[in-house]
Amino acid sequence: xxxxxxxxxxxxxxxxxxxxxxxxxxxxxxxxxxxxxxxxxxxxxxxxxxxxxxxxxxxxxxxxxxxxxxxxxxxxxxxxxxxxxxxxxxxxxxxxxxxxxxxxxxxxxxxxxxxxxxxxxxxxxxxxxxxxxxxxxxxxxxxxxxxxxxxxxxxxxxxxxxxxxxxxxxxxxxxxxxxx
Length: 180
Hints:
2 domains; single chain; alpha+beta; 22% strand; 2 helices; 10 strands; 3-stranded antiparallel beta sheet; 180 residues; disordered C terminus
């Protein structure tokens, strides 16, 4: 049987080429997910403000410093958060900065804070504790709008700090959280 040294070299080169191609494909796929998805709401530039107003298909709503939609929980009363334990898995409180801003872009409600049962400070607007939803995977999404989840209804927040009018998305009164 005849062994060809040239065929061994060709085989090694093919393996190197395949490995290089695979690495390039992985890099391309990873990089492709870094931009804003097609059809999504434009992400506001980082302002350094913990909360600002953003115009969306639902109207003008509040977003955090990363452009994520901010929600309020109907069960929160008297400037106090009632979302803890399993609720806090789906709804992350918006932390209050050490120094509260006197004003934020487009925000007409009073910006304040409340101390949660766990001792952390949570940002409030218009006396409503603020949250983001784990079901919003990119800035500008409003997947938590009108959900009846974790013991109450969740709505996006207007610049005044109140629940946005018409909180339920078309055809959705009660939904379950995504599999996070």
